[in-house]
Amino acid sequence: MSVRALGLIGHSERVTCLEPIPNKMQLLSTANDLTCRLWDLRRPGMLHMLNGHSKGTIKAVSCSKYDLGVTTSSLESHVCIWDLSSTGKCIQTLEQAHPGGISSISLRSNDQDHSNTNPDRTLDHNNTSMVTGGMDGVVKLWSVEASGCQETGRQEWKQHKAPHTHRGCVMGVDCRPSMLWDPVVVSAAHDGRLMVSGAGVDDPVCLHAHTGAVGHMMLSNEQGVDSVGSSLRVVTASSSDNLGPAAIKVWDFN
Description:
This protein is mainly β. It contains no helices and 19 strands.
């Protein structure tokens, strides 16, 4: 077996997040230097450097399918929305999305490629959902409004009622878009809880996932379905649990 290391050099301070671009050999990275960088993994090199945050630390990055949009969030409470299709410019900033700072973010679209029917490459309001998690434990759900500012091309984001709230910093959020625009929202936090709400869930499901803080969470399957009843698998990780000093758990919702 041969092993080769490819160096991606550019950040000047500690790297905080990594996010692969779906269906492409590309990678997003964020760091304490307040930049987000897009890398080409085929012939290692930087494609774009995304500058938009002015203070704090970039804590999370998320990319929708088909690179129609990228979001980054920071402890300064702002969400920056980026377009990777051309220059990698910041097309919109949501200020004070969480007053206490944003610790996690997820931008998701359904499984259809709308690039042919959506030549201006704006986020489709029928198929896009964004979830943010705050340092204060609040989870917020956002949608793209059908109407926006035609003069500037800016799209309007609508904040919906918080699906659920944790008792500690939210360390992971994700969602599965629904054609009825009632996405399944999943989150985990320092309170050790895993919470699920949305389509097909009458009341939020709250599980004491770990005895210690949940440090990481992800959805391991993302089929284009509309409810928890269609099967959902969630992976959580904690540095403190009754299973041992470090535990990874897989949760199946059927």
